[in-house]
Amino acid sequence: MTENLGVLGKKSPRRTGVERVANAPLPTVYGEFQAVGYLDHDRGDEQVALVHGDIGTDRVLVRLHSECLTGDAFGSQHCECGDQLAAALRAVVAEGSGIVVYLRGHEGRGIGLLAKLRAMALQAEGLDTVEANLALGLPVDARDYGVAAGILHDLGVGSVRLMSNNPRKREALVRHGIQVAEQVPLLIPPCENNITYLRTKRERMDHHLPHLDAVAHLS
User: Fold this and answer.
1) Was 97 annotated as part of a binding site?
2) Which of 40, 72, 83, 143 is catalytic?
3) Is 191 annotated as a binding residue?
4) What are phi and psi of 70, to 5 degrees?
5) Mean pLDDT throughout 118-122?
6) With 107 labelled, which of 65, 139, 169, 191 sits at a CA distance of 20 to 30 A?
7) What does pTM read for this prediction?
8) From the candidates 40, 72, 83, 141, which is the catalytic residue?
9) 66 a known binding residue?
10) Residue 67 vs residues 95, 192, 211, 219: alpha-carbon distances, Å
């Protein structure tokens, strides 16, 4: 097999970071977006940012949404992911501008779809979401937000109003050079099927979910 050789017969260096490769209008039921496609050279994942309006550079309303096939596509009530995605898209349209970065490779907090399904099976047997991951020998949260920061840098964003209940997302962006001017709650009313999952996220993963106090009647 022929090597990819550069000047003087040396190998060309492997590309790193994120590269913008596509930009297309995307009309949705929520409003008009530009779908900006990226290739993550470090992991090989294809990523997309949905951009609405004139985003500017500072205090941009942003959601970093981790891929969740079961919630986003199938409407699973095991989590609140699908509702959060819809709420974030509505929010940036109502704001007049903003970005939803859809992070592929984040399925199951980074453990992958099949591992997530195995963890869900353990949760059905009584383990919580943290215990289930650990029982499988997997990390509780394996997500990395470097690619998200790279996308925001490429879009010219310096500071954000971050739609998230997860303090670790804020910390990760700051580490990667994106200022977080404000953390905007993205609270979805719980249901009987996800209340235990949400309480675990609050009690064991430090998610800020004060609205759960009002639904003590749910099992």
Assistant:
1) no
2) 143
3) no
4) -65, -40
5) 97
6) 191
7) 0.89
8) 141
9) yes
10) 23, 23, 24, 27
Burial of 130 from C-beta contacts in 10 A (0-12 / 13-18 / 19+): middle
Structure tokens at 100: 């939803």
pLDDT at 13 (0 to 100): 63
Query: 178 to each of 6, 118, 181, 189, 216, how far by Cα in Å?
Result: 34, 35, 9, 30, 37
3-state secondary structure string, the chain?
CCCCECHHHCECCCCCCEEEEEEEEEECCCCEEEEEEEEECCCCCEEEEEEECCCCCCCEEEEEEECCHHHHHCCCCCCCHHHHHHHHHHHHHHHCCEEEEEECCCHHHHCCHHHHHHHHHHHHCCCCHHHHHHHCCCCCCCCCCHHHHHHHHHCCCCEEEEECCCHHHHHHHHHCCCEEEEEECCCCCCCCCCHHHHHHHHHHHCCCCHHHHHHCCCC
Does 141 participate in catalysis according to the annotation?
A: yes
pLDDT digits (tens, 9 = 90+) for 90-103: 999 999 999 999 99
Virtual torsion, Cα 83, 46, 61, 171, nearest 10 deg:
90
Say whether 123 counts as a known binding-site residue.
no
Query: Is 164 a known ligand-binding residue?
Result: yes
Residue with tokens 């704001």: 95
pLDDT per position as a tens digit, 11-69: 556 777 899 999 999 999 999 999 999 999 999 999 999 999 999 999 999 999 999 99
Residue 83 a catalytic site member: no
